[in-house]
Amino acid sequence: MLREWRYRLSAALTLGTAILATVPFGSQPIFWNAIWLLPLGAAILVAPWSLAGRLERRALLAVLGLWLAIGVLVFLQIEPLESGGSDLWHRAAKLLEIPVTSRRGLSAVPPDTALLPGLAASLAFLAGLALPAERFPSRTLLRIVSRSLACLALLWLFQFLQDPGMIFHHAKTHHRDVLTGTFFNRNMACALAAFGFVAAIALISDRLLGSIAARGGTTSGLRLRRRDLVDLVVMLICLVAMLLTRSRAGLGLGLVGAALVVTLNVHAHRIWSHRPARRLILATCALLGLASLALVVQMLGVRLDANARVDESRLVVYATTWRMALDHPWIGTGFGTFELVFPIYRSAEMQSSGIWDRAHNTYLQLAAEGGLPFLAALTLLVLWLYTRIARPSLRDGPNRLATIFATGALLMPILHSLVDYPTQIPGYAIPVAVIAGAAIRIVSRGSPQL
After folding, report:
1. Mean pLDDT score of the chain, rounded to an integer?
2. What confidence score (pLDDT) does residue 289 get?
3. Can you tell me the mean pLDDT for 292-311?
4. What local confidence, expressed as pLDDT, does residue 58 receive?
5. Angle at Cα 152 formed by Cα 192 and Cα 176, nearest 5°?
6. Rounded distance, CA 334 to CA 329, Å?
């Protein structure tokens, strides 16, 4: 009885935080970022960890080891030097007119605020590990994800129709003519809506392909059920929200994630060899592809022309950030110092407009701030977790549908971080981390399929 109560309380705190974190401007203000640490920490403390499986314990130890490495890095970055500080610090102090201090990195104090988004995402991942996912059917889990995000997208659409230039009675400074939801940035809104879109696609394709396989590969007598229609409506709501953001990366990666999910479902049901099923799949994919291409060209064509210079500047920023990383390869310049260090390296090739407080490539920014060894360790951890999630999606098993969704959905933030900073925004990173943790839990403990 006590164990059941602990499961329910931990799940309520975790899921409630994952949903609510998206609302207050994506929890980007530092106040909200700090607030969500409390329920996530409580969810971890309440959860019955004595029942954790081997994979869950390994993931837990890997995350704790990562934060131990971060603690060592921060200590090294703020540790005084006998030689009077690095040349980088002297150049920064002269440019920014601040006192010189003898530190290995640029920052002389622990980067508390810079590490808070990463800490919130890590706690969300650990809280997701504690979710009793094995007690729920895979389809139920996907419906929770898709319908929750569809409801959130409806809120965004209602707000957008009322006044596209406002977020909860606060005037937007950028992206005033497009949907940004409860975020300051349209890319984050599109990326989050894409999770609901991919979840609905996973449900619809699994049910239809399963019915085709049960009929020996024929489509005769195939009908949509009430739940299929609801999932279809959810998919369309999320797709409309994605299109109204006019986000190239978010929309493109959403379609990539959906295509991967459909492909894995086709493989799972083994119907590719049946000619009628193959024709139906090809026709459906062609129709969706043409429709999506037409909408993308129509809605994004103007933006491609208008933002060509911004894209060129972003390539220069990538090269500049990589040069920063090479100049300080072992411990970096200090977490949270990119905005201070970048003006020193800023190239004359860049246009004067634009605020570059982030590198728009999370991996490069981590390499510059934390050093190349830290980036390598984090990359190996992410790849290890993703491969452990993706592997069961290719095999028969009770958790196949959930892992198929996770494989397609989690690929999006991994790739999106190459061209933007979605995982640096708590309102996006917290739900994604919860999904990743729950996926590891499902792989470790199993989840009923029906």
Report:
1. 79
2. 60
3. 51
4. 86
5. 75
6. 11
d(CA 315, CA 185) in angstroms, rounded, equals: 20
Q: What is the pLDDT of residues 61-98, one digit of tens each?
A: 889 999 998 888 888 777 655 444 455 555 655 665 55
Indicate if the alpha-carbon torsion angle 331, 333, 339, 344 is positive or negative: negative
- Of 423, 421, 381, nearest to 66 by C-alpha is 381
Q: What is the DSSP-derived secondary structure letter of residue 21?
A: T
* Residues 425-435: tens digit of each pLDDT: 898 999 999 99
Could you give the C-alpha distances from 212 to 219, 383, 403, 445, in angstroms and in order? 6, 34, 21, 30
- Residue whose tokens read 């390994």: 58
Token code pair at residue 161? 């129709």
Count CB-CB contacts under 10 A for residue 246: 20
The Cβ-side half-sphere exposure at 133, using a 13 Å CA radius, reads 36
| 276, 219 Cβ separation under 8 angstroms | yes
User: Could you write out the DSSP letters of every residue in 154-220?
Assistant: HHHHHHHHH-TTEETTEE-SS-TTS--TTSSSHHHHHHHHHHHHHHHHHHHHHHHHHHHHHTTT--T
Contacts of 103 (CB under 8 A, 6+ apart): 77, 78, 79, 80, 81, 85, 86, 89
User: What's the whole-number mean pLDDT along residues 143-156?
Assistant: 91
Q: Are 88 and 106 in contact (CB under 8 A)?
A: yes
* Of the candidates 395, 404, 332, 407, the residue with the CA atom closest to the CA atom of residue 363: 332
Find residue 171's DSSP bridge partners.
166
Beta-ladder partners of 80? 103
Question: Of the given ranges (91-100, 129-138, 356-365, 406-415), which has the lowest mean pLDDT?
Answer: 91-100
Q: Is the pLDDT of residue 220 over 80?
A: no
Name the residue with higher pLDDT: 116 or 275.
116
Quote the distance between the C-alpha of residue 271 and its chain's center. Answer: 32
SS (H, E, C) 38-105: HHHHHHHHHCCHHHCCHHHHHHHHHHHHHHHHHHHHHHHHHCECCCCCCHHHHHHHHHHCCCCCCECC
Radius of gyration for the chain, computed over Cα atoms and rounded to the nearest angstrom: 23
Distances (CA, A) of 427 to 66, 81, 158, 191, 210: 22, 38, 20, 11, 35
Residues 89-131 pLDDT 10s: 556 556 655 554 545 555 555 676 788 888 999 999 999 888 8
